[in-house]
Amino acid sequence: MTSDNTEVWSLVDISLPVSQSELVSDTLWAMGVVAIEEIQGDNDTVTLRTSMGENPTDDIALLVHQYPFVSISLVDIARTVADTWRAHAEPTWVTEDVVFVPTWLPAPPALHQIFIEPLDTFGLGNHPTTVAAMQLALQHVVPATHVLDLGSGSGILGIALSKILGCRGSAFDIASGARNVLKENCKSNHVENVAWTDSYETETYDAVIANILAPVLRELAGVIHDVTQTNGVIILSGMRDDQVEDVLACFDSCVEVGKVSIDGWSAVALEKVN
User: Which domain-ending residue is among 44, 64, 85?
Assistant: First the structure.
């Protein structure tokens, strides 16, 4: 809060060469940011300004690890300014029957309306990685089974599978605000069988949906494999098209059963065979 009681919000400024801005912007969208402002700098540099929530430490560390050429700083601005992106939000159609709807917008007619409130940390379900993961899940997840939404963000994938297929969901994300946003979105969708877990590694699941970046998919490959039931489904998303081969090499005991590519991003459905 400022001295005049104006609420402020900490945004993240990411300075980098103009030639790398599209690549890093795509990664930020995949991480779940809700808006990016591009500020032109000098000498072929640009600053990408975005929100990563109240505690962005882990996300910043992941970004710097993947792109060591970026320079990152925090800046405080008035909350009313930070929330202007909401006026430009739109529903996102996943299929002809399924639509993700920001909670402050009127819902278009659809067989399945999934309402989403991103709060300050997560996206609107409109990034290709989320849409692709959802499309594959609707094709390959068995109704009324137990699903892990790993890297859950807003929880939209687990919530949608609960509403549409009657699945029981467990959700986990390293982001500090994920638990609260999951609770908010469960309430908006009248869903009661999706719950947060702090120990997803201690259970097994009929399906695991991991919508996270390629380096993390590779890092967690062993854990994802171990928590998936034999003959269960693994859906991997968050990969650029040219990263798929390296990620799938870490899942060599699985069989590919489906793939969706949208705007340079790919999601793959696997069956765990042993």
Answer: 85
